[in-house]
Every structure is written in structure tokens, then in C-alpha cells.
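Obj: model holo form, ligand = zinc ion.
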Amino acid sequence: MDLLIKNGTIVTAKESFVGDIAIKDGKIVCIGTDLFVDAKKVVNAFGKLVLPGAIDVHTHLAMPFGGTVSADGYLSGTRAAACGGVTTVFDYPIQRKGRGIVETVQERKDMCDPEACVDYAFHCCITDLNEGSILDEFEAAVDFGVTSFKCFLVYKKEGMMVDDGTLVRILKKAKDTGAITNIHAENPDVIDLNISQFKAEGKTSAWYHYLSRPEYVEAEADKRAVHWAKAVDAPLYIVHMADKEGLEAAVAAKREGYDIYIETCPQYLEFTCDVYKREDGRNFVCSPPMKNKESQEALWKAIMDGSIDTVATDHCPFQSYEKDWGKDDFTKIPNGCAGIENLYPYMLSKANEGKISFNRAVELCATNPAKIFGCSQKGSLTVGKDADIVIYDINKDVTISVDNMHSDYDHTIWEGIKVKGYPVQTYVRGTLVYDEGEFVGTPGFGEYVKREPKK
Ligand code: URP
Ligand code: ZN
Ligand code: ZN
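Output (holo C-alpha cells):
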């Protein structure tokens, strides 16, 4: 054996038990109690939790957006991931008018490959059907391992939005090819209307970012997406769900038996729209914005009752000077916040506090993401799967600060937040990449995850 992790409490989405895990050639080969095997390295995890590595299925690394490029590239973003217990990162390359899916993703894969510190996969955002030829490329994209396509129902002026006709064509074609459609749901016309009114009234602070895209703006688009997915009976994955009304519509459709999945993000679980009243409110500007307490409580209820399927970060940080572009005009603030290194510590901390079980945290952050997005080798501590493992100390409390993160950004919305318990080691395919606060991995070690289509 290459590695034996002994005496830890092994946590899966279903159960927790004390045991040992034996690893060879990057795979879990045996799980049991008191395993007697020779191993090159033995780690005593007594008193610690042994968890599957998290899969962050929503990040924007080196993303051109808001007049700049997001502050974490593939190296720093995946380094930070490793240090937060994330062993697979999904990025969102954006297909532009006239360009194909595979060439768009290949370009990003070439950038990522020499830099990735953990394993990585891609969704692809579709912004233009190229007179229909993009739909003909779905089979090739799926063969390439890209089995999810994202539609923005917003970002009209940025040239990223798709109309409802395009959405329906994508939903149908994705279904036919064993893929799934991811949706960013907000209504662009009402946002533009609100923005022009606020600007005319001289209302320019970050608070008006929230008021220009409040609950009803997201709810309408969530419901529209659910409506079209039901109409053509196609799988749908709603990203960064943040509002109660849209959430309830999606949950109702799931309960009717439709193939609908819901993602939310830690920032919506921790912060409310009140952050936009703060002096540093612009640092919290992301879309959709944080919502009111009622929405936050609905999200937590859905986390607890099993209606939400995944928690991912929407990691898209910008530097302070870039956020400052919008000091006197909220529309000039690049949209997006940091989170990749905080996902697992935050959700596990909530488990450690007793709000959810550790099993549920594992299900939301690792097991469900792997299942929904066709990563058969990931997301669970099971014999035969990749040895993507996090060792977690329930007694190590950390106060999050930009100074102890491993990204390239210069501030974080998570500054000062206290988490109860923290990952102490991360292994990707059996190789240690994070150890007691330090990144110990190698850029380029991360491998592309070729995902499988739904049968
Ligand atoms: O504000 C955000 N979320 N920025 C990243 C792009 C997106 O909408 O997911
Ligand atoms: Zn989005
Ligand atoms: Zn996003």
C-alpha cells in the first residue's frame, strides 16, 4: 500500500464509523477496522474525521468579467481549493459568438493543465448557438467530458444572455445527449429598469445593487426556467439559488418528480442583503445578491430537509481596487466574491455546531455534486474510487482572514468569520496537497476529470 489512514471516524453521506482506509495508486483499495497491511506511509487520524474531498462545482477562474479578469487564476484558485479541502474544481469557460464548445473548453484546459493543484472539470456557458451549429456539437462536447451547459438568463448587455427560445433548444438537446442544463436565473429587463430609475434619482451605493435585483427579479427567472424544464421534461440545475419564492417553485417541481437540482452558496447562507448597507458593501456585490432573512431561512430549511442538492461557491473574486471602481456607482462594481477555500470549512462548521449532520455536509459538498455531474470516481469514500480525502479536526477553530487564505485576492467577504473545526490535511488521489495550514502540492498535479453522461 502507498498510504494507510488509521483510526479516524470515516464519514460518508449515509453513515459514520471508526475505521481505516488503505490506498494504492491513488485509489481506495480497502476500508475496514484494524487493517493489517504494509504501507509506505501511515497516518493516525484518531479523534479526527475522515471525509471525501469536496467538489466545488461552481467557480470562475481567470474569468474575463466586469471590465477585468477574476483575481484567482487556475493556479491560485486550485491551490486555495486544496487548502480548503476541495479536491475537484469545476470552472465555467464561456463560449462566445462564432466559437465552438470543444475549442472553448480545450483552450481553458490548456491553461489549467500546467497549473491545476487539484483535479478539475468544466461546464460550458453557451452564449450563442452559432445559427444552430452549437447544438450539433453537444455530442462531441459530451465525448470530451463536458456534460453540462450553462445558460445565463441575465447579463444581456455583456452579450452572455440567452433568450427563452434558445434555452428551450438547449434544454432539449442536453437531455438528448445525456447532459444537463445549468441556469443563472435573474430577469435582465427588470434589473435594467430598476437601475435606470435609481441612477436618475442619484441612488448609487451598493445597497441599490440589491434593490435593483431583489427577490422578485430572481424568482421570476427561477420559475421561468422551471416552467421550460417541465414543459420539455429536461434536466435542470439551478445555480446559486438565493430567493425563497424561486426555491419553493423548484422544490415543488422536484417533488412532482421532475429532474431538477438546486445549488446554493455559503454566502447566501451566512449573509443577508444588509451587508450592502455596510461601508464595504461593494465587496459583497455578486449576482444574484444576498437576499433578505426570509429567503435565508428558506435556504437553510431546504438544506436541512434535503431539498437543496448541492452547495458550491460561485468563486469569482476581484481585487479591492477593482471593487472600488463602483464606490460611487454600483453598476461599475465587478460582480463576484471569494469562497473556494471557505466552502467545506463553513459547511462542516455548521455540522460541528449541530445545525446539520456531517453526513449531510458531505452529501451537499461531495457526494451529490459527483452524482449530478457524472464524476463516477469522485465524491465518496468507497473502495475503487479516487482517494480524494480530507482529514478534519473538530477541535481546531479558525477565524477566517485574507492573511490565512491561499488565493491571490487582497480581501475576502469572509474576513473575521469564525469556523468551528477545520481541515488539517487534504489528499488528491492519495497525494498530500495540504498539511496543517500549508499548501504542499504541486501545480500541474491536478488532472482533468472526463465526466460521464446520464444513461
Ligand atoms: O456575481 C457573480 N456571481 N459573478 C460570477 C458570474 C456569475 O454570475 O455566476
Ligand atoms: Zn451566475
Ligand atoms: Zn457563477
